[in-house]
Design brief:
The complex is a heterodimer of chains A (about 350) and B (about 300). Chain A is mainly alpha-helical and about 350 residues long. Helices cover about 75% and strands about 0% of the residues of chain A. Chain A has one domain (about 20-330). Chain A contains 15 helices and two strands. Chain A starts with a helix and ends in a 15-residue tail after the last helix. With about 300 residues, chain B is mainly α. Chain B has a two-stranded antiparallel sheet with strand order 1-2.
Chain lengths: ~350, ~300
Amino acid sequence: MDDPVAPAAGGVASSERRAARAGGVAVRPPVLIACGLGAAALLPLLLGTYPIHVLTVACYYVILASSWNLIAGYTGLFSLAHHAFAGIGAYASALLAVRAGAPVPAAIVCGGLCAGAAGYGLGSVTLRMRALYLALATWAFAESARIVVSMEYGVTRGDLGLAVPLLLPTSSPRPYYELFLVCAAATVAGLALLLRSRIGYRLRAIRDDETVARAAGVDTVRWKRFVFGMSSGIAGLAGALYGHYVGLLSPAAMQFDEMALIIIMVILGGQRTLVGPVIGAVVVEVASEGLRAYGQLRMVVFALLVLAIMRVYPPGLAGLGRALWTRLRHGQPRRRYHRASGPAT
Amino acid sequence: MDATLLTQYALAGLVIGAIYCLMAVGITFIYSVMRMINWAMGEFYMIGGYVQYLLIADWLGPDRWYLALPLAIAGVGALGMVVQRVLLRPMFAGGIERLDEYATIVTISLTVLFRNLAVVIFGPYQFSPRDYAPPVQLGPLPVNGSRFVAFLGAAALLGLFAWVVRRTWFGLAIRSVAQNRVGALCAGIDLSRIDMLAFGIGVALAGAAGALLAPVFLVYPQSGALSTVKGFEIIVIGGLGSLGGSIVGGLLLGLVESLGSVLISPAFRDVYGFGLLVLILALRPTGLWGERAREA
């Protein structure tokens, strides 16, 4: 699959030149991103309270989907415990605030650190496992975490739900939306920088072939632990923030359905692209709120879309958008997705 | 705690354990042939339960429950073969980078699809077909008739499965594919046909478990979730890729759960399995009879 980050640096200049030759005005990606962010920041002026809430939740999922894309898409560690780390962060932060009376911002940071530490630990335990065993082990970890949270109702209040103090002294969702937007943008920007750095190349080397990566001098143990800790920490921070936004936690958020939702978002948007998870999370969250009247049929449609994408067009919405954009600007025939030829078995 | 009661609970544990075996054997069978884990196993279990319920409650009537079972199993098997043909076969046609990831994503999407489809079609309600068999007296112990039928059915199906895999040409072909795909291909075995049949049989075992348990447990859209958990626990206990391991693991899990809830506390019923899992992994990291390599 082609990588959006590596060619981006060189690709801009050439596309600009092509655009100039065609007599068009060059639009740089950073300009586009800035415009998009500005528009997103101004949206609350037009929308009511409920749509802003939906967008806030969408930002939360942008963070989760992007950080899962870092570990599963870019590093090739197919973890199925991402939702559990969000839950661990949320519960750690909430318990610190409720039981120990810690100030909420400090509790959120601690929640993120706890989730990061748990992720680092899980990464260390599963270092030798690959592919299916890693998926099974992370899944078992997530299920155990959920069972512990719902069983220890003396501490977490289990299925009764834990009331959590709010982060901001307001009932309006707008400041929360702005906060979540900044966090989501910071996450995506941070991941972009990380993937452009040498570390990003090391992670992708691990994905492509771990043995070769090690032979080329990549300290695979160190970077696999790092990426586990990093993505879990981000998920934990997001979970903690979200907990102090909605004000009520329950183990239901740690069910496997949540992980399936993250996977659906990433695949729908486009795996191994930076914009893919963003598009996927926003589309799925907004569409599922907008089509609430159709009940569970929404999830049926999303699942069918994901199956179709996996089967027919793996680049997802991000790839589709890029192909259409290329065609619109340059009038070139849309480039078909080129399948790498692999061994038959 | 007198001995009769204890035996009764042990027996109940074995009955449920036999059903767990069906799930685990299905998972490990599909894994050993196609080298993938079917995360949607519990959803095929759920579909088996729904088909059984519909057949008994609406189409055949409760008197002909013995006809409903094979029909439900065949229906789930056919659905599995269609799923394999449409979604999973391309994974061996070349062109997909990471087979295990592809299969994981596809089957996880299938769980979402089937679960929500069940809600759309039948609503979030819980169904249960009427008990069709009268209570059975096993020595001094009374046993619920449907549970007894479920146990007998599970044992018969596992016996049939073992006979097919060990004694027939088709079983030989399947075992050779499980050993070495390229080697089997060179010997003239039609891989894609074997894959399709193996997937169908594997999910049909899950469907059979769902159909057999329909009168014992309730049938509802999420009913597959717990049985997936049990199935995975068993294959980790018994060792992935080992059929004997999944049978012993299934019976062991059923026994531990049943005796644990009676001797310790029924509230933690689903935790005992994880306890057993951790214990066995600590003693034998590859499970009881698992493959040596932990790298798939």
